[in-house]
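Worked example 3. Consider a protein that binds glycine.
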Amino acid sequence: MLTGTARSGAGGGPEVAVIGAGPIGLAVAWRCALAGAAVTGYDPTPGSGAGAVAAGMVAPVAEAIFGERELTGLLAASASRWPAFAAELTAATGADLGYRTDGTLVVGLTADDLTEARRLWTYQRELGLPVTPLRPTGLRECEPALATRVRGGALLPTDHQVDPRRLTAALRRAAERAGVRFVPTAVTDLAGLRADVTVVAAGCGTAALTGLPVRPVKGQILRLRAPAGTAPAIRYVVRGLADGEPVYLVPRRDGEVVVGATVEERSDTEVTAGAVQRLLRAATDLVPELAEYRLVEATAGLRPGTPDNAPILGRLAGRSGPLVAAGHHRHGIALTPVTADLIAELALTGRADPLLDPFTPDRFAPSPPGPAGPDGTEVSGR
Ligand code: GLY
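Given these inputs, the predicted complex is written out as structure tokens:
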């Protein structure tokens, strides 16, 4: 067990301990340090969690799916913070984050694929989200490398992307420059930490530290590279269905194309031939030219999933418990700015922004009931 003591801020700010140095933990630490806290970050392998393999889609519209209205609102709130967050991080570090605002195309390869995609974007349009349906000709005017077989699709102009590896490195640098101290040690018991505020941002490791239901959800993902010296054949993020197989393609200016990802209720990180085959097949069905690219990486990561697929954001166990910023599942990169801002505010001022209300830990770990009366009913006035 680690016993750590966080330090007092130079300006007398509170001591904050942040457990976990993935994008979420780093961004929380950075924001807390900028606000005057003395921050210590704990992680034996910083930047090695789900963020290390993530594609980096900032997709408030494509990820607005049936039954997740509150999460859709949080994704939109975070997307609106992304431009200023990226600019501030670049100004603090000089780093190019690979933040791109070209937009996203959602496509269907077959008539069945298109029917399914259209059903979702109809729902998204009913929510007032920006979706522009395109005919095949319009689609190919946007993205000439799409297969001629693609039956149709839509433009989502506000769904953007950032390179998670560049983001994580920049957040680490910005946090260090703001005064965050990093301790490369695993925290196994929160009781051993002495800080004014503890923030648990430990991804899948959050379950063991807090008892909250955060489970690993495996994702296998590939990285292709365009022929040397050339940009990828696609400019937009392309996501869609190819004969029922969901796939996304995320092009980077440096020639990389990320192809993702499986969603598997498993906790291993093996890369399997079948998954690679399915992802490559779906990718090349949509953009045939990708078959000429080099396959440079095949990896698997573990998303921190929760029972309702939404993150856990807030204070655990009443007024004295640690803060939790975990369980971001498919949305860790997209939700980084809003999580960092709101959790830092909660850590330093005690104010819980109403945006956090649907995501508090209590929905999984209700506050303990008051003392029971003789007939077994609760007697406290809470
Ligand atoms: N954010 C996309 C994924 O989790 O695969």
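Take a moment to read the result before moving on. The chain has two domains: 4-62+164-213+307-363, 104-157+216-305. The first strand starts at residue 4 and ends at 5.
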